[in-house]
C-alpha cells in the first residue's frame, strides 16, 4: 500500500518589479576628459573653458634610415585642424585630430625643421598614401587623442596619447604662456612608432626605411570657447 506522496517543492517566486528596481545599476564613473571635449564642462567664472584655436599646430618630423637613406627624404607631417579644450581651473586638457587631415611636407614647415630639399608633388602624394594605409591604418584608427593634466611639476604635463588603438603615458616638457584671454602651450617630445604597435615603413628589405623615432613640435593656443549659437 502506497503512502501519501510528498508535496513537490514549490519554485522560488520571481522578484517583483518593485523589488528589482530597489537595486539600481552601479553608476558609471565620470570621465572629465570626455565631458570636456564634448563641451559639457564650463570651468569657473574666473577660469572658463578654453578652446584650441584655429592657428594650432602639431608638426612631426620623420627621418629616413637604412643603407640607402641618402636616396630618400625626411618628411614633415602636420595637424592643423585640432579639436580640443582646456579647463585651466581643473588643470585638464583634451584634444584630438584626424590622421587623414594631416598635411605632408609643407614647404614652410620643412624649412623650420631644417630640411633643405622639397619633394615633388608625386613624391608627397605617395608618402601620404603610404602613411595612411601601410603605416597608420587610418581607416581603422582615424583619430589621435591626447588627454593631458597638470603634474605639479613646473614646465611639464602628464599626457596620455592614443594612436593606432594604443594608449601610452608620457611626461611632456611644455612651456605655458598665459596671455589673457587665453594661453599657449609649446613644447617638443620624441615618440617611437613601435611603442604604439606601428611598424615603421620600409622597402627593399629595409635598405630604405623610416626611423622609429618621431620628433614632435607643438604650438597650441587656446582661447575662450564661443557658444555654438553665436558662431
Notes on the structure:
This protein has 231 residues and is mostly beta strands. 13% of the residues lie in helices and 39% in strands. It contains four helices and 13 strands. It has helices at residues 17-20, 32-37, 107-112, 121-135; strands at 50-52, 57-65, 75-79, 83-87, 92-98, 103-104, 143-150, 156-163, 166-173, 175-179, 182-192, 202-203, 208-224. Strands 1, 2, 3, 4, 5, 6, 7, 8, 9, 10, 11, 12 and 13 form a 13-stranded antiparallel β-sheet that branches. β7 and β8 form a beta hairpin. The longest helix has 15 residues, at 121-135. It starts with 16 loop residues before the first helix and ends in a 7-residue tail after the last strand. The model has no long low-confidence stretch (mean pLDDT 85).
Count of DSSP strands: 13
Query: In DSSP terms, counting alpha (H) and pi (I) runs of 4 or more, how many helices?
Result: 4
Shape: globular
Nearest-integer average pLDDT: 85
- Give the helix/strand class: mainly beta
> How does the major sheet shape up?
13 strands, antiparallel
Terminal Cα span? 93 Å
Q: Poorly predicted ranges (pLDDT <50, ≥5 residues)?
A: none
What would you report as the Rg, rounded to the nearest angstrom?
Answer: 26 Å
Report the helical percentage.
Answer: 10-25%
The fraction of residues in strands falls at 35-45%
The SSE string, one letter per element, is: HHEEEEEEHHEEEEEEE
Short account of what is shown:
This protein is mostly beta strands and 231 residues long.
Write the layout of secondary structure elements.
Blueprint: H1 17-20, H2 32-37, E1 50-52, E2 57-65, E3 75-79, E4 83-87, E5 92-98, E6 103-104, H3 107-112, H4 121-135, E7 143-150, E8 156-163, E9 166-173, E10 175-179, E11 182-192, E12 202-203, E13 208-224
Antiparallel strand pairs: 1-4, 1-13, 2-3, 2-13, 3-6, 4-5, 5-7, 7-8, 8-9, 10-11, 11-13, 12-13
Amino acid at each position: 500500500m502506497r503512502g501519501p506522496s510528498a508535496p513537490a517543492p514549490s519554485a522560488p517566486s520571481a522578484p517583483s518589479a518593485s523589488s528589482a528596481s530597489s537595486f539600481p545599476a552601479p553608476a558609471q564613473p565620470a570621465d572629465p576628459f570626455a565631458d570636456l571635449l564634448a563641451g559639457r564642462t564650463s570651468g569657473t567664472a574666473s577660469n572658463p573653458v578654453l578652446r584650441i584655436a584655429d592657428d594650432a599646430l602639431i608638426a612631426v618630423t620623420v627621418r629616413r634610415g637604412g643603407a640607402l637613406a641618402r636616396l630618400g627624404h625626411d618628411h614633415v607631417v602636420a595637424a592643423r585642424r585640432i579639436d580640443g579644450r582646456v579647463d585651466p581651473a581643473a588643470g585638464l586638457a583634451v584634444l584630438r585630430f584626424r590622421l587623414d587631415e594631416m598635411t605632408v611636407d609643407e614647404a614652410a614647415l620643412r624649412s623650420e625643421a631644417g630640411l633643405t630639399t622639397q619633394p615633388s608633388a608625386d613624391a608627397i602624394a605617395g608618402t601620404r598614401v603610404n602613411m595612411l594605409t601601410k603605416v597608420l591604418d587610418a581607416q581603422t584608427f582615424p583619430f589621435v587623442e591626447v588627454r593631458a593634466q597638470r603634474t605639479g611639476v613646473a614646465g611639464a604635463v602628464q599626457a596620455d596619447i592614443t594612436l593606432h588603438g594604443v594608449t601610452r603615458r608620457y611626461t611632456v616638457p611644455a612651456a605655458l604662456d598665459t596671455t589673457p584671454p587665453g594661453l599657449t602651450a609649446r613644447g617638443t617630445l620624441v615618440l617611437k612608432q613601435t611603442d604604439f604597435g606601428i611598424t615603421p615603413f620600409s622597402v627593399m628589405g629595409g635598405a630604405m626605411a623610416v626611423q622609429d623615432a618621431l620628433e614632435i613640435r607643438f604650438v597650441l593656443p587656446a582661447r575662450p570657447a564661443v557658444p555654438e549659437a553665436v558662431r
